[in-house]
Amino acid sequence: MAPRRRLVSILAGCALVPGTGCSWIFVNQPPSDPVPVAPPVVCTTSVASPIVDTVLAAAALGVGIATAAMSSKSGGTCTGSFGCMNMSGLNTAGTAMGVVLGLAAVPLAYSAGYGYSTTAECRELKASQLACVSGVEASCNRFMDAALAECERSAQEACASEGGADRSCHEGKMKACMKAAGWTGK
Asked: Most buried in the list 4, 8, 14, 143, measured by CB within 10 Å?
């Protein structure tokens, strides 16, 4: 491998190491439906990880643009013969490093977007759970609808596998499922 390609490969590898994204690692998403009203769901509400991802993405993009711009401006020409150096290899490496840093910002930006949307979804779910438990009937609809849909699917599958496709099988399975989901008194 040519020395220039080796240098670019090393720089690319070093730049992409931090590109994993804190949000993908540290943000826990809320559970999928149906979600019971109680106990409260366990998921991440803090936007600390997405903020770190945003700052790192902005820094990588900014440094990448600056590096590429500076290396494209510095020339390898000189007017005198004393102290002249051919800087074209460094210019290419600097431009490549700038591009790699700019590309490293992409997964960080996606991670930040994932973190912001996931933590917002978690906060919304926790607020709905709290409102439902506090007695706000309208906020319980989300949980009831999801539980009904899941119980409907479960009852159909259970009755079909038992060979009981009649209405009493379906109603019994639905009642048992809704009771298990905590919706008996609602």
From this structure: 143
Q: How many structural domains is the chain composed of?
A: 2
pLDDT, one tens digit per residue, over 110-128 is 999 999 999 999 999 999 8
3-36 residue pLDDT tens:
666 655 655 555 555 556 889 899 999 988 777 7
Local confidence band at 57 (pLDDT 50, 70, 90 cut-offs): very high
Map residue 41 onto helix, strand or coil.
coil
Domain hosting 102: range is 1-29+41-75+85-134
Tell me: do 95 and 180 sit in the same domain: no
Residues 52 and 124 reside in one and the same domain? yes
Q: What's the rounded Cα separation, in Å, for the pair 110 and 113? A: 5
**Which DSSP helix (H) or strand (E) runs through 113?**
helix 88-133
> How far is 171 from 178, CA to CA, in rounded Å?
10
Q: Per the domain annotation, does 80 fall within a domain?
A: no
Q: Which residue's entry shows tokens 């009831």?
A: 144
CB 9 within 8 A of CB 96: no
CB 45 within 8 Å of CB 123: yes
